[in-house]
Specification:
Elements lengths: L1 H6 L7 H18 L3 H16 L2 E3 L5 E6 L4 E6 L2 E4 L8
Antiparallel strand pairs: 1-4, 2-3
Length: 91
């Protein structure tokens, strides 16, 4: 029975989700001509800047590019855990 689950995708190894995530990155690259590396760099810089002002959940960040007929929009879902109060480090 375990053999059939492995063949037909019944396993719980998460490889299906990983494949979906990789496919999304490839599709984003094809549609916007932005390399996956550039998108990763952009994500890292956004996280660095936001981390100066708030604590964020870096494990649940989602950054995508939405497409319209005429435009591309950067859409970010960044869970905020806490706003930092008081003196913030100089930029």
């Amino acid at each position: 029975m375990d053999f059939l689950k492995k063949i037909f995708g019944g396993g719980n190894d998460g490889s299906g989700q990983k494949a979906k995530d990789r496919l999304k990155i490839v599709l984003i690259h094809d549609r916007t001509d932005i390399s996956p590396q550039l998108l990763d760099n952009l994500r890292d810089e956004i996280v660095d800047i936001l981390a100066k002002y708030m604590d964020i959940d870096t494990q649940k960040i989602e950054i995508n590019l939405d497409h319209d007929d005429d435009a591309v929009a950067l859409v970010a879902n960044i869970p905020i855990l806490r706003i930092k109060r008081g003196k913030v480090a100089n930029l």
